[in-house]
């Protein structure tokens, strides 16, 4: 090892899902939205004047902050925006989790949390989900340096009700509690209405799932003006211009089209419920999802084998080679046509499996 390497900050990076991009493939592995962004986004893209790219963007991202504040019924000083919710969450870890005491998040959850904790040298503990993969809220009622969990949780898809989240908040008023609502628009219950009552609550959401803009990278946080000020202080001492001109313009359009948002999230919820029934008919169990994906298992199939078999057919789902969940697959909800292709393959797989036994 070279001498300089002793001073390198070494980290184990987060492993994102595969991003192959073949025209006919069925991509159900990274919880993207199968529908295009709102029509206003496409129009704004066509009308975009590149001359503005000469100038630095507004560091406060006010155009986007303003529409989000209206949308969430909060004041402008209560909104923070970033390059996807990953950026917002990373900033929040750095800003708010600065105690000697461990932060708490579930043992099975978004696998970026331990990566940020390690990177920023934040001690952490991971209370286990119960047998049915539910968050045990009593586990979060002990001394800690902060709390974070996704609601709905990923990859389990299960959600806590707002009153259960409030219970956790009530027991954690001396630390910052971050609720990662990446998937809340698919039937979860948001705790946005609680930000005015709990000045230590930060709610984080994203445009990547329900607004079909994973490729644009927009996430945001809502909290008390004080929380948001602290978050901005860290951001401005890191990189002032996180949101580029085009992102700001298209992001605004995505928020303004409420009808399109309702239509596409509604379609995904309907496809998800139909998928649960179809998959049950094929012998799969799935958890009661409030997200745009299902977490499924089959009593007879090895999840990894099925994952590989699907991949050969150019159908991508997500498999996690991790304790407790290695018999499960996470399947993003696609269009009805994409889901039909999945069921078609699973029917053939079942027939083959039966023959082999
Ligand atoms: N939180 C959770 C729970 C997620 O699953 C994801 C998606 N990988 C994110 C946050 C980050 O999404 P994005 O950065 O695209 O907003």
Structure description:
The structure is a single chain. The chain is α/β, with parallel strands linked by helices and 357 residues long. It has 2 domains: 112 residues, Aspartate Aminotransferase, domain 1 (Alpha-Beta Complex); 218 residues, Type I PLP-dependent aspartate aminotransferase-like (Major domain) (Aspartate Aminotransferase, domain 2, 3-Layer(aba) Sandwich). The protein contains 10 helices and 13 strands. The strands form 3 sheets. The protein has a 7-stranded mixed beta sheet with strand order 2-8-7-6-5-3-4, with helices on both faces. A hairpin with a 6-residue loop joins β9 and β10. The radius of gyration is 21 Å and the shape is globular. The termini are far apart. 4'-deoxy-4'-aminopyridoxal-5'-phosphate (PMP) binds next to α3. The site of 4'-deoxy-4'-aminopyridoxal-5'-phosphate has 12 residues, from α3.
Can you summarize this structure?
This protein is of the alpha/beta class and 357 residues long. Helix content is 36%, strand content 13%. 4'-deoxy-4'-aminopyridoxal-5'-phosphate binds next to α3.
Percent in helix: 25-40%
**Spatial order of the strands forming the largest sheet:** 2-8-7-6-5-3-4
Mean pLDDT level: 97
Count of distinct structural domains = 2
Overall SS class:
alpha/beta
Would you report the number of β strands? 13
CATH top level of the largest domain? Answer: Alpha Beta
Ligands (ions, cofactors included): 4'-deoxy-4'-aminopyridoxal-5'-phosphate
CATH topology grouping of the largest domain: Aspartate Aminotransferase, domain 2
> What is the correct CATH architecture of the largest domain?
3-Layer(aba) Sandwich
Q: Report the biggest beta sheet as strand number plus sense, adding barrel if it closes.
A: 7 strands, mixed
